Amino acid sequence: MRPNYIHLPKLEEGHPVNKLRESFNHRNEVILYHNDPVGIVFIGDSITDYWDIESYLQLNNGKRMINRGIGNDRTQWVRDRFTADSIQLKPDWIVLSIGINNTKTLDVDQSNDNQQQIKTRILEDIEAMIVMANENNINIAVTTLTSTNRPKLEGFITRSKLVQIINNKIKQLCIEHDALFIDYYTQMTETKDDIDYLRNELTDDGLHPHVFGYDIMSKVIEATFTDIYPIQLKQR
């Protein structure tokens, strides 16, 4: 008998999260049917999606790591799929990495009102997901937004400053709700003329990490979970 599970429909035609919806529905059903023990679900946008996590990290308790990243995702859309793609899999931990795509509108509108709307949206959604995890007795870790290195975009400087503010607020939310805070930002960022940039040697396009960027992220994960959960870097 097939399991009773949360099966999400696609959103409106052309919505960016549709591309993996059917795949995730099928994969979630298989995990639940086989009662696979899930250690960590990584959920977020393309930075998570492009990360071949098991090439970098391994769990020492026989449980699985599941990637539920979708390119172009935003906090409100992850919030909508959070139960289906993470909570119902009953992981020991959820690692939530989301928010940078919410800042895309800064390239056409750098007003204070738009900055406030972006910040509020991101923080309200992240807080809601932390609460959802807590209510289901699932540990949750929230990562910083990473910096960018696309100075030709109109909103680059505004985005750089807003990301710092949002990251500080995420850290506060983690403290308030007893969530784990994961700081990718500090080790992946360099400052030039008081503006923070994603380190040039970690990216090809100024947004997504390549292999060296993911190497740093993996080391941060291992260090953050030391003495908390049995995850470690794979030996090469």
From TrEMBL:
It comes from the Bacteria. One of its GO terms (molecular function) is phosphatidylcholine lysophospholipase activity. Residues 42-216 form the SGNH hydrolase-type esterase domain. InterPro entries: Ester_Hydrolysis_Enzymes (IPR051532), SGNH_hydro (IPR013830), SGNH_hydro_sf (IPR036514). This is G-D-S-L family lipolytic protein. It comes from Macrococcoides bohemicum. The lineage of its organism: Bacteria, Bacillati, Bacillota, Bacilli, Bacillales.
